[in-house]
Amino acid sequence: MAERSYLSIGQVVNLLRATYPDLSNxxxxxxxxxxxxxxxxxPKGYRxxxxxxxxRLEVILHLQKTRYMPLSAIKQKLDSATDLSTLAFEVGLLxxxxxxxxxxxxxxxxxxxxxxPDLLGVEISFIRQLADNDLIRIIRSPQNRxxxxxxxxxxxxxxxxxSRFHIEPRNLRQYVSxxxxxxxxxxxxxxxxxxxxxSDDDREAKLxxxxxTLHDLTDGVRTALLRNRVFSSLNAVVDDADIDAIDxxxxxxxxxxxxxxxxxxxxxxxxxxxxxxxxxxxxxxx
Length: 286
Known about the structure:
With 286 residues, the protein is mostly helical. Helices cover 57% and strands 5% of the residues. The strands form 2 sheets. A 3-stranded antiparallel beta sheet has the order 3-5-4, with no helix packed on it. Strands 1-2 form a two-stranded antiparallel ribbon. A hairpin with a 5-residue loop joins β1 (40-41) and β2 (47-48). α3 packs across α4 (71-80), α3 runs parallel beside α5 (84-90) and α11 packs across α12 (200-233).
């Protein structure tokens, strides 16, 4: 089965139209005429768009939509950029576009691998890389068709976004190992939380809520640990000079507290300062 490494112009429009409703085939052709994008051409002259072409097109559309920049200025910015992913991050594209969520109907079905590029805008070769690194699973039908579970779509989308930062599927194997270990912990806790509840409807809802609670808590720990280690490695932490200053400040505070304590009157010694009775001598009466 031949793998497809490119998207057609219609597929690109379908992929981006949710974010850019006015996008059309003619607009993409116009941008090509202006020299902003240069898609691959088949021997018969059909346009084919690689992932890099789509990323470049997203930057152009984003700058038009949010910065109202003329095409000449956009072209100059693209031509002077050393890395498209860095440029996309700098202009806010990677933080502005919300992650698409598949519908419940899409998640609960199997999809031929040939349909995934149209649905997610990724290449089949990328899907195979994910499967080779155990991030997703390619299911074989009895007739040897390759199928993708719709529940894997979220992973595919996240991995596709990470690839913009040059984080490839092979770099994500550590998360597979971590998920395998963590799933055992979750399963043990969730079994205890759900008990013997056999009602399908309630059980699924309770499982979802319980999983979310556990995930949010453990994710908070994981995120904090990861952030602290990354920031520490990049020296974005308190340096030795700051530590010395804090030590001095605490020492001064402790000394002040000791001095203040020494000036407090001991209750046991209060008798020494007790007011002595005043003796009044009677007045002599003439």
